[in-house]
Every structure is written in C-alpha cells, then in structure tokens.
Structure to design on (651 residues):
C-alpha cells in the first residue's frame, strides 16, 4: 500500500509539519521530506498505479513514465537543495509554502488525468503566491497580487479548455493532442501562461525577483518547468511552439541585456531557457523531446544555483542592482566560483550540464533540416553567454570595486550551492547519468571534436563581443516597459482619464443645466411679467390688438387644418 | 608604509595578460578548424570560423537591438511606484 502513497504527499506532509514543528525537528523535516519524495518517485512504475473515483470520472492521480519520473526527480532534488540552502534563514511559513508548492509540481508530474493535473496546477499557483508574499516588502505584496491574478486567470483558461475536451471527447486522460480547436487552444494557452510565453512573459520578471533569497530559488524551478512537462505530455510536435519558443529565447536575451537588477536578469533568463525547451517540444521528434526533458533537468539546477548566488549577495549586502554591486569576488570567492560554474553551464560550455543538454535541441533542429531554427538557436546560445554567462557574474562579482566587503555565504547556503555546482559539472562530464533516464532511447555523442570547437568559437567570440561592446552596455538605473504596462499603468491611466472626462462632462452638464434653468426662469418672467407704471407687461399679460389676435387664431386654425389633412 | 595593493586579479598587468591570453585562445579555437572537421547540417555552418564570426555578429546585433529597444522601453525605476502603492 505504501507504494501507492503519492510522492507529492511526502512534500505536502513535510510542508504541514514545517509549519507545526520547531527548531531541530523542523530542520530535519526540511531535509528528510524531499529525500522521502525522491525515494517515492522511484517506486512509481510505468503506467497507472492509482485510481480514485470522483463524480462520474475515474481519476488517475499517479501515472508513471520515464519523463514523469525525470521531472519529479529533479523537483525533489530541487526541494532538498532549496531546503538546505534556506532552512536557517527562511521563515517556517515560507518553507512550508515552498514545500507545498513543490508538492504541487511533483503532483503534476504524475497526474494521469486532466482533473488531477488542474488541481495540482492550482495548488502551485496558490502557494507560489504565498512564497512571493514572503518576500515581506510592499513591492513583494503588490507583485504577488499581480502574479496571483494572472495565474488564477491562466487557471480559468486551462479549466475552460479541460472542460471542453472532456465534454467533446469524454476522456479526462492526459494524452497528446494538437491545438486544432477552441478547447485545445485554451489548454495550450493556460499552460503557456505558466511557461511565461508571449504575450504574458512579464510576470516572471515582475514577481520572482521580489521574493526572498530562498523564495526565488524555489520559484525559479517549478512553475515554468511543470509547464514544459505539460507541453511534452500534451502537445509534442505542436509546431506553433517552435516559433513561440524562439520568441521567448530572443525576448529573454534582449530584456536581460537592458536590465540593471541582477535578479531580474536571471528572471528574464528563465524565459530565454524555457524558450529552448518550448521550441524543442514544437520540433517534437524523439531527440527533441529528450532534449527538452534533459535541458529542463539541467536548467533547474544551474538556474537555481544562479538564484542562490544572487540570493547570497542580497542576503549579505541587501543590494541587487548591478550599479550598486561589483568587486565581490574579493570576499565571496566560493559564491563567485559557484556563480561562474552556473554561468558557464547556462551558456552551454563544454564540460558543463548545459552543453550536454542544449546541444540535443540544436541537433534535433539540424536533423529536421530546420535551418532558420538551427541558426537562431546557435545565435541564441551566443546570446545566453552574453546576457547570463558573462553579464551577470561580471557586473555582480567583478567590474568596478563597489567597496562592499560582505562575508562569504553561511555554511548551509554554501552547501546548497556546492551541491548544485557539483551537479552542473557531474552532468557535463558524465551525461549518461541523465541520458539513461530520458523518455526515449538516446544514441548521442555530445563530445565530438568538431562540436566542441564549434561551440567554443561561438561562445568565446560572444565573450569578446561583450567586452568590446561593454561601453554600450553601461548600466542605468532604469526598468524596461513590457506588456504588463497595460495593467500596471495603461489601464489605471485610462480609468483615471475616463473618470476625469466624466467629471468634466458632469461639470459641463451642471453648468449648462443651471444656465438653461436661469434662462427659462428669465423667459417665463419676461412672458408673464405683470408690468408696472414704467414697464410694459409680458406678452401673455399684455393687451393685444383685435387684429393681431384674429391673425394669430387664423394662423393656428390653418396650421391645424393642414396637419389634419396631411 | 606602503599603500595596500589591490587584488592581483584587477592589477593592470594581470588584465593585460588576460587580454593577451584570451586573444591567443580565441585564435587557437579558430585555427583548430584547420585540423578538426566541424560537421555542419547546412553547409554554411561547417565553414571555416563560422562559429566565431556568427557568434560575434549575433552578439553585436543583439547589443545593437537592445540599445534601440532601450531608447523606446527604458523608464526610471520609480515609473510604476505610484500605481503600485
């Protein structure tokens, strides 16, 4: 029976216990619950292992498959490393919310039906909002509200799609489909909102950087990657995803290049990296889907590591703007080293996990003769090195000496970083550890001499471009407008303008009404004035000559006759 | 009493050496293609030094485009603050 206990249940239980316990017991729960989850994940065999009747449906809360186990595995590892990183600094409330959020992600991984998937999806939306609010600042509160509204809206869109599919097909199974009618488009749109796809990519850079150091580490891992898994399960080979993915890749690079806030740079970089995965799902071949799954796995690790290093800097200095940072390598050598490893990994440097996973996607595009896609992916690989591989560590840890001399990270934060830095290298040197768990059999040799030379040229010359064009990338204390301008500024301003216009219209109407009333009163007084010794009476009280009266009566009668015969 | 020396990594001599070393590594990655065959998918991507010039040109284009976008999209940091509070 224990085999059927949902793997997500351990994290849910852990989240509840974290809130209820104290001190060492809480610390133990933080570290043990993810390990139990990891164990439970690997107990789930292929196929449906648990069914639960619900209304007229038979829910399948646990369905195993290689890709589901792969994502659940990295989510459990992430929960462990995130817990280790933050258990001495983060509040119990934050860790509890983060673990329930992680439970939602693991639940999505094994959801065999759309209803279960939707329930875990919403669990993630709710508790990720709490994680953002745990940032504890007015900006975090406001960003959390915007995040919640957008994700609940995304949930409604997803729900509409799911209901449409269930009504039309009678099936609630999670199975591949294409976006060919209203309900499947709704499902795709609901998932893409969580993937930070256009036009709603801005929420990620709005919300994630406002969370606490620990919160942003958790946030970087789950929402967007469960969306990638959902795309792999539901929309493999949906070609529109190729172009959506490419847009995300370029969007992430360009906005990250404009950004001054170190954690926003990383948030934009998530969009960029998820774009690679979305594009791979759109290509849809076995190699491409392997690439999407493998890249999601390695991305969670190196992106969490980048957020860990940014979190340590924030924790130690209270600052996150590139204009206020620099020169930190002097007193934070371990954090700097971990940041460099993560940066090399996200850039896809040989001997790091990024190289052994991202090249799968490029190769898939090449083998399908998608020349434009292949070249754009190559350009994007160079761009990733530009905006995340060099820019982030350069401006935070090197460039000018900011004069800051913060202490190195606390030991538990260091341990979390070292664990993930080690994994970045391990998966770069021994990619077979990951390859053997991919959804499809893989015969791929990442380290051919030609491929290594090609990527070294691509990346090193993009590094040269960075330093040559550095004067053009001078940091400015600015933000960049995005689509969220519509609801953060456009709509409020339109509303205010509308209110002002209505006020002006009302004032005009009141003025007009008052003056019209005055005119009417004056006219009536004039018409009915009784007159006096010195003034003439009004027309209705005046004595009219007989001839004039007869003329008036004749005119009125003629008009009446005319109207009557018409 | 001597003024405290800055970290060895930011001394002018080190930076000069880093530039020279990087230049040599860059040249070697391109020169390596004389001896190592780069397998391409579309012909052009197997050309001599393709990765080098393509990577450089792509980054130059991205910096240029981001600069243009910046003129259009950049605002002061307090742009949204009134609305948020």
């Amino acid at each position: 029976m224990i085999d059927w206990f949902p793997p997500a249940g351990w994290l849910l239980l852990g989240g509840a216990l974290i809130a209820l316990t104290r001190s060492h017991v809480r610390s133990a729960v933080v570290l043990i619950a993810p390990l139990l989850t990891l164990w439970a994940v690997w107990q789930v065999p292929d196929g449906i292992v648990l069914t639960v009747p619900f209304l007229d449906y038979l829910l399948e809360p646990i369905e195993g498959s290689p890709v589901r186990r792969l994502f659940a595995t990295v989510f459990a590892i992430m929960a462990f490393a995130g817990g280790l990183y933050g258990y001495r600094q983060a509040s119990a409330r934050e860790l509890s919310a983060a673990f329930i959020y992680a439970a939602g992600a693991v639940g999505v991984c094994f959801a065999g039906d759309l209803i279960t998937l939707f329930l875990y999806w919403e669990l993630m939306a709710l508790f990720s909002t709490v994680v953002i609010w745990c940032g504890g600042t007015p900006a975090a509160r406001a960003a959390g509200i915007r995040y919640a509204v957008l994700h609940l809206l995304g949930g409604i869109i997803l729900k509409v799609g799911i209901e449409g599919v269930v009504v039309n097909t009678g099936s609630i199974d999670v199975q591949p489909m294409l976006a060919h009618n209203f309900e499947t488009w709704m499902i795709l749109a609901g998932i893409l909102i969580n993937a930070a796809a256009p036009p709603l990519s801005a929420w990620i850079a709005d919300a994630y950087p406002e969370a606490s150091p620990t919160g942003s580490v958790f946030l970087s891992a789950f929402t967007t990657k469960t969306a990638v898994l959902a795309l792999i399960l539901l929309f493999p080979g949906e070609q529109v995803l190729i172009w959506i993915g490419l847009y995300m890749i370029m969007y992430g690079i360009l906005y990250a290049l404009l950004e001054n806030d170190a954690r926003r740079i990383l948030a934009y970089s998530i969009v960029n990296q998820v774009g690679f995965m979305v594009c791979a799902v759109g290509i849809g071949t076995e190699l491409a889907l392997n690439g999407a799954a493998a890249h999601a796995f390695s991305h969670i690790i190196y992106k969490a590591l980048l957020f860990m290093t940014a979190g340590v800097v924030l924790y130690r200095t209270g600052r996150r703007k590139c204009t206020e940072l620099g020169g930190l390598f002097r007193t934070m050598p371990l954090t700097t080293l971990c940041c460099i490893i993560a940066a090399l990994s996200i850039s896809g440097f040989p001997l790091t996990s990024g190289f052994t996973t991202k090249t799968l996607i490029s190769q898939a595009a090449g083998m399908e003769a998608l020349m434009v896609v292949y070249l754009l992916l190559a350009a994007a690989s160079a761009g990733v090195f530009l905006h995340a591989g060099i820019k982030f560590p350069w401006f935070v840890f090197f460039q000018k000496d900011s004069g800051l001399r913060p202490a190195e990270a606390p030991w538990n934060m260091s341990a979390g970083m070292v664990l993930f830095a080690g994994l970045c290298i391990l998966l770069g040197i021994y990619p077979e550890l990951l390859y053997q768990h991919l959804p499809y059999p893989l015969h791929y040799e990442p380290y051919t001499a030609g491929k290594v030379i090609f990527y070294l040229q691509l990346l090193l010359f993009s590094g040269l471009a960075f330093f040559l064009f550095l004067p053009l990338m001078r940091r400015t204390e600015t933000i960049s407008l995005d689509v969220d301008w519509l609801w953060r500024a456009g709509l409020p301003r339109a509303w205010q303008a509308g209110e002002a216009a209505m006020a002006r219209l009302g004032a005009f109407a009141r003025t007009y009404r008052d003056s019209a009333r005055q005119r009417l009163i004056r006219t009536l007084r004039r018409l009915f004035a009784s007159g006096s010794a010195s003034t003439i009476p009004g027309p209705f009280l005046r004595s009219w000559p007989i001839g004039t009266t007869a003329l008036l009566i004749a005119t009125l009668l003629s008009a009446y006759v005319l109207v009557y015969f018409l | 009493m001597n003024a405290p020396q800055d970290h060895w990594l930011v001394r002018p001599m080190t930076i000069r050496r880093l530039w020279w070393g990087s230049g040599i590594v860059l040249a070697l990655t391109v020169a390596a293609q004389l001896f190592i065959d780069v397998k391409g998918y579309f012909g052009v991507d197997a050309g001599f030094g393709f990765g080098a010039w393509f990577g450089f040109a792509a980054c130059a284009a991205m910096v240029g485009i981001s600069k243009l976008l910046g003129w259009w999209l950049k605002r002061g940091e307090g742009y949204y603050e009134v609305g948020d509070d």
Summary: The mean pLDDT of chain B is 88. The beta strands of chain B are 74-76.
